[in-house]
Amino acid sequence: WWLRGRLPGQYGLLREVAGRAEVGSDGWCWVQIWLGCAANFCADDAGALEYDTALCDAAADQGPSPVLVHGLADRAIGLINLGRLGEAAEDARRPLAMAREIGYRAGEINALGALSGATGSSGDLDGAVQLERPAGRAVRTGQV
Fold first, then answer.
1. Pairwise CA distance, residues 49 & 59, whole Å
2. Taking the model in full, what pTM does it have?
3. Nearest-angstrom CA–CA distance, 50 and 134
4. What pLDDT was estimated at residue 23?
């Protein structure tokens, strides 16, 4: 769905699947991530933020995890899209630290992208570039 640009067309199906999963379960959390992505593709910024927030709230009690890293980073992107840059920067710092703590390299790269977006949107383009460099190096060297 992602690679072929069909994710927005599956928005309804994803909502149905989420409704059948136990709130807070691993499957439910991952569906929330995909719902947030689908909402972003559909220009539903408020909806994306709602899915990401629900995920973060449900996963927060479980401690650091890849799903929480993605939820926080994606929530930061949603906040950027809504112009809530201060909150976005804070939300992007948390998953970066968490990804590093648990050794989750792909999540670290995702969080660096979100933090770079918040930094650049706040007008600090040099800072945004500095944040993107480690992510670019990791992708180029296959450390993901």
1. 15
2. 0.81
3. 30
4. 86
* Nearest alpha-carbon partner for 17 in 38, 2, 36, 31: 31
State the DSSP string of the chain: -TTTT-TGGGHHHHHHHHHHSPTTSHHHHHHHHHHHHHHHHTT-HHHHHHHHHHHHHHHGGG-S-HHHHHHHHHHHHHHHHTT-HHHHHHHHHHHHHHHHHHT-HHHHHHHHHHHHHHHHHTT-HHHHHHHHHHHHHHHHTT--
pLDDT by residue (tens digit) across 80-131?
999 998 889 888 889 999 999 999 988 988 888 888 888 888 888 888 888 7
- Considering only 36-45, 52-61, 82-91, which range has the smallest mean pLDDT? 36-45
Count of other CB atoms within 10 angstroms of residue 133? 11
d(CA 36, CA 86): 20
The one-letter amino acid at 116: S
Find where tokens 């792909």 sit: 106
Q: At what angle do helices 26-41 and 11-20 cross, to 10 degrees?
A: 160
